[in-house]
């Protein structure tokens, strides 16, 4: 399971302040805490800044995090100029968050994917928005993945995000998302699946319980990357336990190692 730490995101007030003040020490501490908690990659987002400022700040943010963290980054922005700026200084193979079937976004992001050999989060949406049901989502997802493959992007570099919605307003969303991932996996061998957690529980109390349950269910249906807060030790323990139960952790070696490292404590 690829754990992508979500905490360096300027929608969080503390990160927004640190980014605007160029508080490198604060950013580095956030990065190290996530890596020490088990993150394999860190998402970096400074999208609350003005669109003209964002590229330069993204460049600074990528350099600041990579100086200390020693892991690749998921460069996250709707602003393709900010993506390009972050990629230009990134060391190693980056992930781009994100591309979609939206015409303009696809045209602007695809050249960056190819130029930098980056992996990419592929959002299941097009010019019509987020699909209204599973059948439409399958249509959108198949076209998007086929377009990326036809453009020369290796399947191993594509992380399909089914864009789960809130179960509070879309009661069928999780069941349909699980089925969508299963159908996409049957059509595209080697395709990766990624998801964030915030949408599924939006508008409900004690959201962490729903988020954690969603991760476990999704892993059983093929989810192999997740954008999360790795400082949620209960969620991380559930990920390790689920990998063991799904035979993705042979003889439970990772689970045992995490136990000895104290990572399974409540």
TrEMBL record:
Entries under Pfam families matching the protein: Pterin_bind (PF00809)
Listed EC numbers: 2.1.1.13
PROSITE patterns: PTERIN_BINDING
Signal sequence range: none
Keywords: Cobalamin, Cobalt, Metal-binding, Methyltransferase, Transferase
Organism: Desulfofundulus kuznetsovii (strain DSM 6115 / VKM B-1805 / 17) (Desulfotomaculum kuznetsovii)
Family: Belongs to the vitamin-B12 dependent methionine synthase family.
GO biological process, one term: homocysteine metabolic process
InterPro entries: Dihydropteroate_synth-like_sf, Met_Synthase/Corrinoid, Pterin-binding_dom
SUPFAM superfamilies: Dihydropteroate synthetase-like (SSF51717)
A molecular-function term among this protein's GO annotations: cobalamin binding
Any one cellular-component term (Gene Ontology): cytosol
Chain ranges of the Pterin-binding domain: 1-246
Protein name (record): Methionine synthase
């Amino acid at each position: 399971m690829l754990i992508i730490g979500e905490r360096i995101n300027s929608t969080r007030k503390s990160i927004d302040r640190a980014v605007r003040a160029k508080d490198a020490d604060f950013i580095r501490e956030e990065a190290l805490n996530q890596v020490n908690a088990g993150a394999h990659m860190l998402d970096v987002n400074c999208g609350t800044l003005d669109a003209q400022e964002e590229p330069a700040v993204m460049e600074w943010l990528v350099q600041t995090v990579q100086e200390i963290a020693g892991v690749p980054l998921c460069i996250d922005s709707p602003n393709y100029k900010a993506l390009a700026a972050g990629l230009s200084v990134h060391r190693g193979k980056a992930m781009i968050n994100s591309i979609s079937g939206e015409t303009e976004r696809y045209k602007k992001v695809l050249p960056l994917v190819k130029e930098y050999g980056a992996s990419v989060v592929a959002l299941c949406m097009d010019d019509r928005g987020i699909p209204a049901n599973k059948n439409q989502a399958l249509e959108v997802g198949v076209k998007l993945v086929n377009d990326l493959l036809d453009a020369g992007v290796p399947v191993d570099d594509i992380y399909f995000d089914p864009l789960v919605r809130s179960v509070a307003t879309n009661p069928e969303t999780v069941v349909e998302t699980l089925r969508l991932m299963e159908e996409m996996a049957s059509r595209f061998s080697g395709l990766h699946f990624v998801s964030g957690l915030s949408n599924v529980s939006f508008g409900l109390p004690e959201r962490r319980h729903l988020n954690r349950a969603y991760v476990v269910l999704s892993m059983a249906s093929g989810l192999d990357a997740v954008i999360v807060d790795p400082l949620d030790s209960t969620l991380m323990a559930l990920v390790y336990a689920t990998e063991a139960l799904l035979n993705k952790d042979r003889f439970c070696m990772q689970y045992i190692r995490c136990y000895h490292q104290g990572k399974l404590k409540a």
